[in-house]
Design goal:
The chain is α+β, with helices and mostly antiparallel strands. Helix content is 17%, strand content 27%. The chain has one domain (28-130): Electron Transport, Fmn-binding Protein, Chain A (Pnp Oxidase, Chain A). It is built from 3 helices and 8 strands, in the order αββββαβαβββ.
Length: 139
């Protein structure tokens, strides 16, 4: 792959932000819909591309959310969520949950899982989770 850097270099590295983004843009992601429901029965959700296993014993997962997300602060307060692992043909779910506002779930069939959090119909797998830690770094 021929990559031509086009932006300023970061202070501690020879790689530019543009080159870094271009290289990592080639990495396949685990696209996952994070869903929850608040005390007012409002469904909340967002899509992440950084979902992965962190530990088998105890079973832990991790994902990353942009600090500018308007959905994550609402989901974080719940302390529980479902990770709906999506397949490559579920782009419409990604588009719906990437919208702002309560219409995110319009036309998305789902049912409450054991934690009461939305399980999206057709997801490849569901992982019902509780928040154990949050690390704030980067953007």
């Amino acid at each position: 792959m021929d990559i031509t850097p086009s932006a300023e270099k970061t202070p501690d590295s020879d790689i530019t932000p543009a080159l870094y983004r271009q290289i990592l843009g080639k990495l396949p992601t685990g696209v996952t819909a994070i869903t929850g429901v608040n005390d007012d029965d409002e469904k909340l959700g967002l899509v992440v591309g950084t979902f992965q296993s962190l530990s088998l014993e105890p079973p832990l997962v991790m994902f990353c959310v942009d600090k500018s997300s308007s959905s994550w602060p609402k989901l974080r307060k719940l302390q529980k969520f479902t990770a709906n692992i999506l397949s490559d043909d579920q782009i419409s779910i990604c588009r719906s949950l990437s919208r702002k506002g309560p219409e995110k779930f319009e036309g998305l069939p789902c049912a409450p899982g054991p934690l009461g959090t939305p399980h999206l119909d057709g997801a490849t797998a569901y992982i019902d989770c509780v928040v154990t830690a949050e690390v704030v770094v980067g953007d």
